[in-house]
Amino acid sequence: MVRRSCLAGRTLSPVGYKILIEVIARGRVPWIGEVGYVFQERQEGESKVTSKQYVDYLRHLVRLRFSLGPIARFFRFGLVGFSGVFVDLGVFYLLRGQNVGLTSSAAISGELAIINNFLWNDFWTFADIASRQPGKRQRLKRLVKFNIICLGGLVLNVLIVNFFFNILGINEYVAKLIAIAAVTIWNFWLNLKL
Predict the structure, then answer these.
(1) How large is the C-alpha radius of gyration of the chain?
(2) Quick one: pLDDT at residue 90?
(3) Is the full-model pTM beyond 0.85?
(4) Phi, psi (5° rounding) for residue 40?
(5) What is the C-alpha separation between 162 and 185, in angstroms, rounded?
(6) What are the phi and psi torsion angles at 57 (to 5°)?
(7) Which of 71, 60, 72 lies closest to 13 in space, CA to CA?
(8) With helix as H, strand as E and coil as C, how does 150-163 read?
(9) 8 Å CB contact between 16 and 57
(10) What is the rounded CA–CA span in Å between residue 58 and residue 64?
(11) Is 9 strand, coil or helix?
């Protein structure tokens, strides 16, 4: 038994049959009491439990662990951003290998990394928020909003790359890594707020 006030305003999305785990993890449950009982041996039929239910249970536990609180969300954002580093640096390397200008290479590779990061963040980091805004049109709106937020980071990224490479004479790839690190917290904070 759980008071309605413990769950009011909470988004629950259980996996499988273990709904109580979701209620305890996401609800504002101040204390838990236990009333023990003993299962009887099955009198008829067979259990419908398969290995899929065990896998769903483990997936549910992992999802709950990584979905609670801003620290876990920042961890997800960081992992997604880390994947974006590979997209960003990979495209940057390919463009520079084709003698595309430094600023153009930094801007194009940054934009492709933004799109990569949006897709992963929309499906994983901010999935609870995205699920309340279903449909392709809403996803496009989120992409535009994410892109606008990250555009400030992209401009900052390009400025940092040019500063470190052209003024301080640091290797262009090291300059690009420094720029990526510098805008990560900016992008997370704004995306979380907006």
Answers:
(1) 23
(2) 94
(3) no
(4) -90, 155
(5) 20
(6) -60, -45
(7) 60
(8) HHHHHHHHHHHHHH
(9) yes
(10) 10
(11) coil
CA angle 97, 100, 104 (to 5 degrees): 130
Amino acid at 159: L
Structure tokens at 149: 């937020």
Q: Tokens standing for 93? A: 């390397």
Q: Are 57 and 18 in contact (CB under 8 A)?
A: yes
Write down the pLDDT at residue 66: 62
| Three-state secondary structure string covering 25-91 | HHCCCCCCCCCCCCCCCCCCCCCCCCHHHHHHHHHHHHHHHCCCHHHHHHHHHHHHHHHHHHHHHHH
3-state secondary structure of 7: helix
Which residues, including other chains, have CB under 8 Å from residue 133's CB and lie 6 or more apart? 139, 141, 142
Alpha-carbon distances of 176 from 134, 153, 166, 171, 186, rounded to whole Å: 35, 13, 12, 9, 16
Q: How far is CA 156 from CA 14, 21, 86, 144, 151, in A?
A: 40, 43, 19, 18, 8
Taking 70 as the pLDDT cut, the residues of the chain under it are 65-69, 194
- Predicted local distance difference test score (pLDDT) of residue 176: 84
| Cβ atoms 92, 105 nearer than 8 A | yes
